[in-house]
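Q: Can someone sanity-check these two? First one:
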Amino acid sequence: MKHRLRFLTALMGFFCVLALSVSVDAKSQATETPNIYAKSAIAVDAQTGQILYQKNANEPRAIASISKLMTVYIVHQRIKQNKLAWGDKVKISAELAKLSTASGLTNVPLTAGRSYSVRQLVNATLVESANAAALALGQKIAGTPAKFAALMNKTARSIGIHDGKFYNASGLTNKLTGKLALKNVSGNAENLLSASDVALLAKNILKKFPRITNITRQTTANFYGTQMTGHNQLIDDHSIANGVRVDGLKTGTSDKAGASFVGSATENGKHRIITVVLGARNKSASDPARFIQTAKLMRWVYTTQRPIKLAAGSTISGVGKAQIPDGKQTTTLPVTKSNQWVWASKGTRASQISGKYVNKPAKLASPTKKGTLVGNAHLSIGGKRLQYIGHSAGKFVMVTDKSVKKANLFVRLWRAILRLF
């Protein structure tokens, strides 16, 4: 009997250890950084630009039709500047009309001499990925393909993209644009951006033109009687993660670029992220590889990470006091100026977030008002500094938490004497 009890006890212990091992392994697999099968990839918070995942994210690569996001970004800029309107008409040249029916290219048919609205051409550019429509928008804005390419590069630099290169509004190789090709440029020249730069472009367009997702979430649309079909296979896909929905943004496909995709998703309508997958497998036009990898990346972000709110007026561990030599109080505690969201592994507490000044703040003069700028801070979790896309991103503004009056003359004099010793 005793032997049997020992045997049963040992057996139960074995199964407990096995169950615990399986549980730990499952947890480890769920939180393990995913292996994204693509040449480059990145995931960022759409509002702050915080990097949540990256793989070869700073290497410029061909982006094909993802280029059309820059074209639409410039269109929207011109509309905001009252230099263009959604209802403006774009007259189609013979070269554009011919290109719109070229074999092997995504397009909507355009008729030479006919005019189409800016709004409809933008819809065709984003939903159908119509190449001639994108080129028509470029010519409407700049007059010639060369001038629009120059404008694309100038705009890229203005938003912090310095390593990329644009040759045309559509993302086609130079030779595929036919008579619209740039002179003295290789026929194989193709628009180049890194995954990080694509994410930065997407971040800017979502911030300044948030209604773009009303277009990019469409699976079908109509262009002057022509039925358009979107290419984003993740629209209406409810299997990514609980509450996660994809509403954009753009595919890109070419021999050099492979199959690429820049995605936009929210969880229960909040906490938008941007994902970029460049150079995924591309065995056929319907190969779902880029969408499988994007879904894997989105699922990992939303199931293993969570955004933590740092409310305005929060102190951050490690960010030292501000010095006010002539104040009634000689120091004051800096706090965050505005509400901020920081992504971290699930289970992380706000108290585990620490900071450090970017540059040591200058001593403040008194009297000092509440909310006076103290300096900027970089944040870290577990000693690892948080990374962001964009030159100035990731610098948290710290301000004084209260007003500090100037000390009276006798106090200031006494402090001056003490400093002599």
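And here is the second, same format, sequence then tokens:
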Amino acid sequence: MADPWLALELGADPAERIAQVAAAHEAFLTVGTAPGRVRDVVRRSWERSALLDPEATAPVDLTDDALVDYRAAHPLARVLPLFRDLLGGIAFDGAHLMAVCDAHGRLLWVEGHPGVRRRAEAMNFVPGARWDEAHAGTNAPGTALAVDHSVQIFATEHFSRRVQRWTCAAAPIHDPRTGRLLGAVDITGGDHLANPQSLALVRATARAAEAELAAERPSEPGVATVLALGRDEAELRVDGRRVRLGRRHSELLVLLLEHPEGRSGEQLGLDLYGDDRLHPVTVRAELSRLRRVLGPELLDSRPYRLRGTVRADFRSVTALLDRGDPAGALDAYTGPLLPTSDAPGVARLRRLIDGQLRAAVLATTDPALLAAWTTTPAGADDLAAWQALARALPPGAPRRPLAVARVHQLAREYGLPRATSLQRSGD
């Protein structure tokens, strides 16, 4: 399939596909693996959703005045007229729904055909409900937030059985100044939405919303933002420009951000190559090319250091941890720092950030934070985190048996005695 984010290949039989994925879903719930033709984005989402009861309904976080006040203060309220203009009429006429959620998957607005809205209320697809993967399983807005990419979820690809009669497409929306995830826009309805047009429509709507927000809030002159979490190549945003850097330039920029006092060429060479492969000429050449990309106003030399104000997503995470805000840090953490980089300096910094965040989350014993950590790449196989989650969940919680099962699975993989895993997980 040309686009892995689309649910159906050209010419595929929807009924046959529904049956195939339904069988794979039942197998996953039974044995923990998904055989058959299940898209990779769906399989991974099911794995992240495995703690949920497949019969559960998304919980409602906000109602009444609290919901009204929250929506009014949210940045996406400023582009609600645009959403209604681009999607509202189509949703009403096409017998489906337009929905907008925040970065936590909390639905802010659900609008469209009245009959469809009434049916959606039965599964709590209503304003104020939490539709992130941690609370509602695989679904377009929740999965779009989890992977930070537009995606279509078709029928039985949904983790919750109550949602499997629906098809949806969603796209994430970012703050154009900082790159921070603001939420997602979604269209939800019947199987007829499983087409390239619905995915293209939400993608275009999300980009239009970002453009309108950018026009309202011009970037601070001379202030640069670097996005490097969960990305193999960093993105630089400055004065309205978006520059995607190559791998080596991404590593250099991260290292310079981590050392605002400056670095010599030899120090940067050690950070990039290690003791055995120090190439001063290569480092100088890479820095010269990086200066041409950044501009002389951003990169100084002797020592090499960044000028002016340069913000970075990974620095935001560490700043929140320093302020004692693990929930905010986990919310700002979109993945490991340059995850495929093997530069020694970057790898050390990546381990440091992940380790500090992990320690802060484990220290809270908060089930919601622990569950969120176990959905990250660093936390998915973290036995201690799963044990802490199993201990933190009350005995009757629907997620607890799944957490305990994951503890036993990881203990077997790590060769630990079953009794040890049981004792530590409290079961």
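A (reply): Looked at the second one. The chain has three domains: 14-216, 220-363, 365-427. The longest strand covers residues 181-189.
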